[in-house]
Amino acid sequence: MKARLLEQIREELRGQLLRLSKAAQEAHAAATDPGSKAESKYDTRNLEASYLATGQARQVDELATSVRIFDALELPDFPDVAAIDVGALVEISLRGNALHFLLAPTAGGLEIFHESKEITVLTPSSELYGKLLGLRAGDELDAPPLRVVAIA
Prior knowledge:
By secondary structure, this protein is of the alpha+beta class. The chain has helices at 2-32, 45-72, 127-132; strands at residues 89-94, 97-103, 111-114, 117-122, 140-141, 146-151. The protein folds into two domains: 2-72; 89-151, no CATH class.
């Protein structure tokens, strides 16, 4: 199951990278187009296009790094009694709702629908990631009020 999930995440990240790269190229073209020169001192179209191109280029770099990391990533299997660590697929119960998370080194916030479940990628920058590390199936937290149901 985790191998298919990992491939699905890789495909999603590659698709995002392709779309964002195209948008960044278009923003760069708009920022450097001679036709976008300011017509007056109050015309900021060129400056705004330049800021957009710079921001998108940075996002492309970050996403390309995520793609490289996930291309090299292998997700270990966790026995039922194992503590949550990087690579764990975790099911928690939060106020009676089942939520699924994959603890990964990058691509935080990415949501993947896999085998009829919505799985959200958590990274070390997430507070919940830090709270889940080291917990085992059956463990509970008060804030947020959750119970670890399963670890894979």
